[in-house]
Design brief:
By secondary structure, the protein is an alpha/beta fold. 48% of the residues lie in helices and 13% in strands.
Length: 204
C-alpha cells in the first residue's frame, strides 16, 4: 500500500512538473482559421548555409511531424516580403506563420521606422486572416536594442508570439556559422530549438 502511494505521489509530481514546464498558449494568440503552417522570411528561412534537410524549417517539420511550407527567399527585405505576402502566404490558407525578417533591412540601412511599418503590415494581414504568428526577432549582433523593441511592440499590438533574438550566441562563432550572417547546421538546430516550443503550443 505504501509503495503504491509513493508511486502515485511521484507520478503526480512528475505530471505537475510537466504541466508547469510545457509551453502554454495565450488564447489571444491562438489561430482561429486556416490549415497550413508556413515559414516566411529571408535567407535564414530558406536555409542558406545548411546542408539539405538541416535548415530550421526542415528540422521543425521533422520534430513535429507537421508539413511546413518554406516561403523563405534570400535577400528579401520587409518590403520584398510584403510584396509577395499574398502569393506566398495568404493564398496558402495559413493557420500558423513563422515570420523571420529584418536582417536585410539592417544590412541595407533601411530606416528603422520603414522596416517596422512594413513588418507590422505583414503581421497584421496574417492575423486578419485568423492565422497565428510566431514572430522571430533578429539583431545580427550589432543591431541596436531599438530593433528588439520594434519586434516587441508589433508582437504585443497584434497578439503574436515573440521569440526574441533567435540568432543570439550564433553569430560571431565559427562553430555555429558559415559566414558573417548565416548559421551552419549546428546554428540552425539552435534556431529550431528556440522556435519549437512556440510552434508546438500553436499546434495543440
Amino acid at each position: 500500500m505504501k509503495r503504491g502511494l509513493v508511486v502515485a505521489l511521484v507520478l503526480g509530481a512528475a505530471l505537475v512538473a510537466w504541466w508547469w514546464s510545457s509551453p502554454r498558449l495565450d488564447p489571444a494568440t491562438a489561430p482561429t482559421a486556416g490549415r497550413t503552417v508556413v515559414a516566411f522570411g529571408d535567407s535564414l528561412v530558406e536555409g542558406v548555409g545548411a546542408t539539405p534537410g538541416r535548415d530550421f524549417v526542415s528540422l521543425l517539420e521533422a520534430r513535429t511531424g507537421v508539413p511546413i511550407v518554406n516561403a523563405g527567399r534570400r535577400g528579401d527585405t520587409t518590403a520584398d516580403a510584403l510584396a509577395r505576402l499574398e502569393r506566398d502566404v495568404l493564398s496558402r490558407d495559413p493557420r500558423v506563420v513563422i515570420v523571420l525578417l529584418g536582417g536585410n533591412d539592417f544590412l541595407r540601412r533601411v530606416p528603422r521606422d520603414r522596416t517596422f511599418a512594413q513588418l507590422s503590415q505583414i503581421v497584421e494581414r496574417i492575423r486578419a486572416r485568423g492565422a497565428a504568428v510566431i514572430l522571430a526577432a533578429v539583431r545580427l549582433g550589432l543591431v541596436v536594442d531599438g530593433y528588439g523593441d520594434g519586434y516587441d511592440e508589433i508582437a504585443r499590438r497584434t497578439t503574436s508570439v515573440l521569440v526574441p533574438d533567435v540568432l543570439d550566441g550564433i553569430l560571431g562563432r565559427a562553430d555555429m556559422t558559415v559566414d558573417q550572417i548565416h548559421p551552419n547546421d549546428r546554428g540552425y538546430a539552435l534556431v529550431a530549438d528556440r522556435l519549437e516550443p512556440a510552434l508546438r503550443a500553436m499546434l495543440r
